[in-house]
Model the fold of this input.
Amino acid sequence: MADLSYQQARRIGLKEVKTRSARGEEPYLSVLEEIVPHLSSLQEVYLGAMRIDIEQIVGTRSAARKKVFSASFYPLLDENSEFASKWSALAASHLKEGIRESITAIEYLNRFYVVEGHKRVSVLRYFGAVSLRAEVRRIVPPRSDEPEIKAYYEFLDFFRLTKTNYICFERPGEYPALTELLCGENREPWDEDRQRSLMSDVTRFRKAFRASPLNGKLGQDEALLGYLKVFGYERLQRRSTTDLKNDLTAIAPELLEIEQQTGPVLMTDPADQPRDILSWITHLPSRTLKAAFLHDGDPENSLWTRSHELGRLYLQESFGERLQTQSYFNVNSENLLSLSEALAKDGIQVIFSTSPRLLAPTLAAAGVLPGIKFLNCSLNVSHPILRCYYGRMYEANFLTGMVAGAMSGNGEIPYVSRAPVYSTLASINAFALGARMVNPKARILLREAEAPEDEIGELETTGGIAVISGKDSEGSDDCDRDTVVFRMQDGKRENLISSFWGWGELYRRILESVLDGSWDSLGKSGASGQTINYWWGISGNAVDINCEEALPDGLRRLVLLMREQIAAGSFRPFDGPVYDQSGALRIAEGELLTPEQILGMDWLADNVVGNAEERKRKDKS
Done:
């Protein structure tokens, strides 16, 4: 005769069958032999005794027990059956001394199918067990291009390293991402202490997840991966369940954006920002706006930092008493969060981090401090809790390339890139295409970023045209220059044209949007959790060129005419056909490159002589 526990468990099972059937879902146990008809022909690996997550036990090997249980292993047979009596006896034994005997199971695609021990699984499920012991054999499917199979082979790599099998993904790329977040560069196999520590952390996270607003909207393991991308593993290790719930609530839009994979809304022109008179009136500043700039370098040693500092000084002059700004140098991933928390207490409302290398810690700070508007100088990333910004420097460098090509007698143009930054290869390629447009024989002789000073000196004394990128012109205070084209005239260096960053104008427009309310209007103009990236070019004054006095008048007029065409959008620097150094077609005629393609360039145009792999490595550093 069944006891009260069986009666209650059976009611749960019958209700599950009814609910799942109404939804058109399978109400009973999954059967492995039905999922994989040729099961016996597949490779089998004995894994031995191990603890498995009860949530991953999804079915049975054969159909004999299929309708004895609901899909979640709750019993279904009559209360007067022999099965019910055995189930009740096992439940009583569990309450008295616990179930110690392992089940036997098959693992397939990181899900478990019971061979022997079905009632043990059912009883433990009813009493809320999280895991159980099992003797496990693994069935390995043949490799294929199916996403689930690809993800499974990535799981096998993850399992060999961590011996962890209770985190489940079905999309390729997620296990490698998790491995990187948990292990970094250390690929030594985990010991038992590390395995237990992760299990404890994941159990605590899942408890917080079930109590958070994300429960039911996002898978718990997808949420775990998203949390680690924002905050890192160290924070997860030291946070309580309540703290984790608060963290998840704060970054819910971010995690849902990661899951939906809708991508960022790209603002390519300042005119794209919505403005209306009512918004402007309601956002009239009642107090001074306070903004902070966090740099990973210092202005004494970094041209990149100096260029952003010039932008900040331009802001102060433009806004006057309406704005207070502060700069902090040599910020890194270890101190950015604590610095941001201190700035929040001081009333800072907007924080700019001025390097792509600071993206990850800025993202973590944005999750902790939702009251501050965070921006990072990078692009093509989907993070609704912060905004990203960058300039289309390749537009300006196409024009500098035109000058170099036109002024070079033999078409040989030495190009020294002294300070590789984000999207360097795109700028080099645009320069090369600009040079070739006016000089079909133009070849760009790319030098390494670490070219010693004596090499630079040789370039400046050989005559002809040369280019230095990431190095301001001698004797000039215009430290925001990106690329300078010069020639040697009567033994003296003579600058012809330069491209430069207009960070001040970009920052001005962004902060104006905060003051007049268009910042908030832009965030509400699309879907909830919308990601905003600013990617302004010559048309938005985020980048531009400076024609020097030595530039011939006819060439000056041509360059300025092309500048107008680029600003108006009627000419694109990356216009095909374009081939890379190997002769492969990279841009077809009439093809319009996406921002992802431009920023992700890992190749050099066929008229560039140099090492693309070296430049690519430095571009990502």
Summary: The longest helix spans residues 4-22.
